């Protein structure tokens, strides 16, 4: 194929706007290192993309899915079905915090608010830090 025209591609992708989107996406993919499925013949990437569409070496449906995936911000992940991932027997499972046997994690489940506050207070430093964030350091910096 010496020249590629819109008429060569329109029978594969009937909507001209979609044709432009798919060809542009494919041209960007080629520029980013995607393998070319036809002989390039010193053509530029948009022409190669159109020729690939016209010769059906890259299916338009695959290009469409790639374009949609590249535009999406939140990609939904299909969760495996229950039959696809077998569930381990209860005795072979490791402990799961909050969902396992209550007798195995009594310390975490029975911590009171007072115990948490005491623990946090013991972590706070009693002296001002030496990193230079005190009021005297700020006054000194203003004088400079």
Structural commentary:
This protein is mostly helical and 144 residues long. The protein is 47% helix and 0% strand. The model has no long low-confidence stretch (mean pLDDT 76). The longest helix has 16 residues, at 16-31. It has a domain at 6-71: RNA polymerase subunit, RPB6/omega (Eukaryotic RPB6 RNA polymerase subunit).
Features:
single chain, 144 residues, Eukaryotic RPB6 RNA polymerase subunit, elongated
Proportion of residues in β-strands: under 5%
Determine the N-to-C terminus distance: 74 Å
* CATH architectural name of the domain at 6-71: Alpha-Beta Complex
The CATH C-level class name of the domain at 6-71 = Alpha Beta
Structural class: mainly alpha
Give me the CATH fold name of the domain at 6-71: Eukaryotic RPB6 RNA polymerase subunit
Radius of gyration: 31 Å
The assembly state of the depicted protein chains is single chain
Order of helices and strands: HHHHHHH
Total beta strand runs: 0
Can you summarize the main beta sheet? none
* Overall pLDDT confidence: 76
Give the helix proportion (percent range).
40-55%
């Amino acid at each position: 194929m010496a020249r590629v025209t819109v008429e060569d591609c329109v029978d594969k992708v009937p909507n001209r706007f979609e044709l432009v989107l798919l060809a542009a996406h494919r041209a960007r993919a080629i520029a980013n290192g995607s393998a070319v499925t036809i002989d390039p013949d010193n053509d530029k990437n948009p022409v190669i993309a159109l020729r690939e569409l016209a010769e059906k070496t890259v299916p338009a449906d695959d290009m469409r899915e790639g374009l949609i995936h590249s535009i999406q911000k939140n990609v939904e992940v299909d969760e495996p079905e229950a039959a696809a991932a077998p569930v381990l027997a209860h005795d072979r499972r490791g402990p799961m915090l909050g969902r396992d046997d209550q007798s195995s994690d009594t310390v975490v489940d029975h911590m009171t608010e007072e115990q948490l506050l005491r623990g946090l207070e013991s972590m706070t430093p009693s002296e001002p830090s030496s990193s230079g964030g005190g009021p005297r350091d700020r006054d000194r910096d203003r004088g400079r």
